[in-house]
Each structure stands twice: as structure tokens, then as C-alpha cells.
Amino acid sequence: MKKVWIIIFLGLLIYGFSLFNGFVWDDEVVFQNSISPFDSTYYRPVTSVIRSTIYNIFGPRPFFFHFFQLIFHIVTAVFIYYLFKRFFKETLSLILALIFLVHPANVEAVSFASAMQEVLFTLTGLTGLYLFISSKNLSIAKIFLSTVILLIALLMKETAIVFFVLVFCYLFLFKKNKQNVLINYSILIVILLMTYLLVRISGGNLYIHGQGLFPIMRVSFITRLMNIPLIIKYYLGMFFFPINLAIAQHWVIKLPSFINFFLPLILEVLLFLTAVIYSLKKKDKIFAFFFLWF
Q1: How far apart are CA 209 and CA 26, in angstroms?
Q2: Does the entry feature the keyword Nucleotidyltransferase, yes or no (predicted)?
Q3: Which of 14, 200, 219, 280 is 20 to 30 A (C-alpha) from 272?
Q4: How many CA atoms within 13 Å lie on the side-chain side of 69?
């Protein structure tokens, strides 16, 4: 419990001053006028409901949006600590949780009220993942409950789809001898994701090519794929050297070159193959799981 208090104390110490910040950028449009749970460019109904609930109770006061966002972030760090304890020693788990807590890349998600969906889907997705990892006997009821929680995370932000993949990887690596668990989970996610997709289609909430504020949102699918190696390089660099951070990235690569496409692609493929070979050779399931996560 002492380590949990360390996480809470550092979270409040580092981000506490953000509670007194005002609204900025998108916040001024989103929160300074009356908002409805259904007023959103994206199909993120759970996020919209939470935002509108805070607004309807506390009004357009920045403090309360920042407060709940900070609480969600700290609770997420605590969840990470307990989740990592399932695989690592307590000290290492604490260090990893603190890195997540204080990493500069997370400042926007904590301090920018319009980015509340980031902390919401992360916390909810980790909750679903933790239920899978912490349960010794995964009954159909537990699988259903945990998967529904993952679906709720998906209704907060589309990026939560990664948690469905992480759970599948975990079950494949650590519950391989219990094929019924993997089969039940696979069937359930197919049903839920198909339902989710049908609801989005029926509601007209599908991305339309050419729309969006940022340049990457207005280019073709092929051009987006071409940008993936450099995007991965950017995020790896940001993780280890978090300098010159910005709230938005407006660069996009339209013509591949050795520096901006082939070199990053070659290095990343080599890194991936090295990790795969190491995992297979050492039969290190924990390394394989967290490499896929990372």
C-alpha cells in the first residue's frame, strides 16, 4: 500500500498545478457551451456521456474537468503497478508505473481537458486486461464481463481496439493449454465487434476520406501506410528522448526516401525479428507479451 501512496503523492505533486489551468484550444469550443452526450464528431458515446455529466453537474468550470482527468490518470498508474506485479518484482513494477505516471508524453492526456478520452479508454482497457490476467479460472461469465469492459473502452476511443489484441496475445501465450478460453473469447469479440461496427455504420459514424484537421487525416490509405515506419520511429524517439513535444503533429511523408521510409522500415523490421527470435529461443513469454504491448 505504501507504493500506491507514492504513486498518488507524485501524481498530485507533478500535475497538481494543472488543476488551476483554464480551457485552451479545443476546450474553449467543447466545454464553454452547453454540451450534449451525443454532440461529437467521433463515435465515442461513453466519453461524451462522462463529459456531459461533469458539465451538467459542475458547469463549464475547468477545475473539475482537470480534477477528474488527473484522478483517472493516477488510478491508471496504480492499475499499471498492480498489473505489472503479476509479472515483475514490486520495485520494478513501481518504477514502470512511475514512468507512465510522469512521462512528459502524457502531459497532454492529463492536462488538456479535450483529451479526456485518452485517460478514460486507457483506464477502462487496463481494467479489462487486468481482469483477464488476475483471474485464475476464466469462466464464461468472467470472459463476458471482461470483454464488455473492453467494449466500453472502445466506446470511449477507437484506439482501445489494442486491448482486444493484447488480451488475445495474453491468452495465446499464457492460457494456451486452455483452448476453450481462447475460443470463447474469440467468438465473443467477433460478436461484439461486429455489433459495434454495425451500430457505427447504421449511425453514419464512419471515417470519410479527406476529412480531418491534420494532414495525415486527409491523405490516401497508401500514403498513411507509407508514414508508419517514420511514425514508429517518432514515438520510439519520444519515449526515450521526450523533447520538443507538441500537442499536434502536422508533418506527413508523401514521397518515400531512404531516410524517411526505407531506413526506419529496415531498422524496425530487424528489431522485430530480433525480438521474435529471442522470444522463441528463450521461450520467454513475458518478454514476448510486453514487446508486443510496447
Answers
A1: 22
A2: no
A3: 219
A4: 27
The answer to whether residues 111 and 153 touch, using CB atoms and an 8 Å cutoff, is no
Q: What is the pLDDT of residues 32-74, one digit of tens each?
A: 554 554 455 678 889 988 988 888 888 888 899 999 999 999 9
C-alpha cell at 61: 468550470
| Nearby residues of 255 by Cβ (< 8 Å), 6 or more positions away | none
**Contacts (Cβ under 8 Å, ≥6 apart) of 268:** 229, 232, 233
Residue with cell 517518432: 234
225: number of Cβ within 10 Å:
9
Count the Cβ atoms, other than its own, within 10 Å of residue 123: 21
Q: Measure the CA–CA gap between 149 and 144, rounded to whole angstroms.
A: 9
Retrieve residue 288's grid coordinates. 514476448
Buried b (16+ CB within 10 A) or exposed e, 53-84: ebbeeeebebebbbebbbebbbbbbbbbbbbb
Name residues whose C-beta falls within 8 Å of residue 93's C-beta, 6 or more positions apart in sequence: 81, 82, 84, 85, 87
Q: What is the pTM of this model?
A: 0.86
Neighbours of 114 (CB within 10 A): 19
Take residue 113 and report the three cell numbers written for it: 481537458
